[in-house]
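At this stage, I needed to go through a protein sequence along with its fold in C-alpha cell form, as given directly below:
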Amino acid sequence: MVQVSLMANNASKNNTVDINVGQTKNIVIDPKVIAKIDINPERIASITRDGNSAVIHLKDGTEIVLENFFISENPQILLNEGQTYWTANLAEDATGQTTVNYLELKEIPKYIDASSSVPIWSWVVSALAGAGTVALLSQQDAKDKTPPEPGKLSFQNLLDSGELTQDQITNDNKFNLKLSGQEKGSSVTYLISTDEGKTWQETTLNQKDLADGIYLYKAVVTDAAGNTSETAVQKVVVDTTTPQAGELTLSDLNDTGVSATDQITQDKNFNLKLEGQETGSRVTYLVSTDEGKTWQETTIAQKDLADGVYQYKAVVTDAAGNT
C-alpha cells in the first residue's frame, strides 16, 4: 500500500489517501497543496504528463494520478521513506518527454509526517527551494530550442524555357513558390532578393509580371516555440528580351560575273558566317530554295550546290529561349 499526504498551507494536518498495490488512483490537487508520497524513488518506474495531470507509474503496477498538478501554485512532489526525503525534479525536453531527477533533501525536521499538528507548508516550500529543487515545468514553460524542419522550397508552374530545362533561366515571368516537408504547425515567411542576397524582402507565393533580372528566394519557417530555420536558396533568372541577332554574311564566296557584289556567281562552295550575335546564344542556320516560302535547317559549310536561288538566315536563341 502507498500513502499520499496532501499538505495544504491553510491546515495544520494533512489529508491522506491510501492506495492499494496495482490500483490506479486519481487525486485532485488543490492549487495550494503539495503532494507527499511515502515511497522510495527506486519504486517509481516513470512519471509522465497527461494534460495537466502528473501520472506516477510504480514498478508494482500502481498508478497515482495527480490531477491539476501542473496548475498548482507550487507543483512539487515530495517522496519519503522513514527519515529520508527526496524531491522529484521534473522537466520536459524539446520533444515534450518528461524527464525526472530525484534530489535527496537534508536536515528535514522529524515533524514532516501525516499526523503532525505543526503547520509545515511554509517550511516545506522554503526547504525545497533551499535545496535547489526545480518545480515541474508546465507545458507552456517547456523550452523548445530545436530549429524546425524547414522543408524544401521549389518553383511551381515555372516553364524552364531555353535549351537547358533545369537551369531556371527562363522567359516565364509568372510562377508560384511551393514549400513542402516543413514542420507541421509552423508558420512560413517567403523572402525575395534582387541583389544577389545582400538584402531580402517579404514576398508572396504568387510571382507574376516579373521584370528581367536575377531573383533569389528562400522560406523562413518558425515553429510554435519561436525557433526558426531557413530553406536552401532557390535562384531563377527571368529574361524576356529578344537576343541580339547579329549579321549573317557569306564567307569565302567568289562573287563572279560583271558585278562583284551582286552575289550572282558560279561558286557553289562557300561558308555562312554570323557575327555580333548575343554571347552564349545558340545559332540555327536555315536555307530556302523557294523564295522564302519554306525553310530547312542547314550547315555553315555550303558545297556542291545545284544551280538555283538560295536564301539564308540565322535564328539566334538565348539561354532563356528567346529568339
